[in-house]
Amino acid sequence: HQHSMSMDGSTSFGSASSGVSGRHGADAKKAISDAKLAELALVDPKRAKRIMANRQSAARSKERKMRYIAELERKVQCLQTEATTLSAQLSLLQVSYWALP
Fold first, then answer.
1. Domains held by the chain: number
2. Dist. CA 26–CA 66, nearest whole Å
3. Which of 45, 72, 89, 94 has its CA 20 to 30 A from that of 54?
4. CA-CA distance, 58 to 3, in Å (whole number)?
5. What are the distances in angstroms from CA 54 to CA 1, 37, 70?
6. Where does the record place a coiled coil (predicted)?
7. Tens digit of pLDDT for each residue in 39-97?
8. Which regions of 1-101 does DSSP assign to beta strands (E)?
């Protein structure tokens, strides 16, 4: 299932013939510009409100994802440091073990 949100968090809609680069067939949708959204608000305020709410939700989701990725990267760094420390400790213990009479 493909979402109809662009990378900048805007919601896209339109007919299949209004293709956007990289999309084909039924998934070819065009993002609505802010100017067109303002026009749409005059004709269909409920739809315009829903589109804006979707954009805001997408932006929040993108921000959550970025924070999650940053936290995972921090955890990876901590685990790599811990693995290096434990490896050094293991080496020392192995040397001590083999030095026992």
1. 1
2. 29
3. 72
4. 11
5. 17, 13, 24
6. 62-89
7. 999 999 999 999 999 999 999 999 999 999 999 999 999 999 999 999 999 999 999 99
8. 12-13, 30-31
Is 4 contained in some domain? no
Residue 18 placed within a domain: yes
Q: Which residue has the tokens 């192995």?
A: 94
Q: What is d(CA 44, CA 65) in angstroms, rounded to the nearest whole number?
A: 32
Residue at 25 is within a domain = yes
Per DSSP, 8 falls in state T
Distance CA 37, CA 54 (A): 13
Q: What is the DSSP string of 28-42?
A: --EEPPHHHHHHHHH
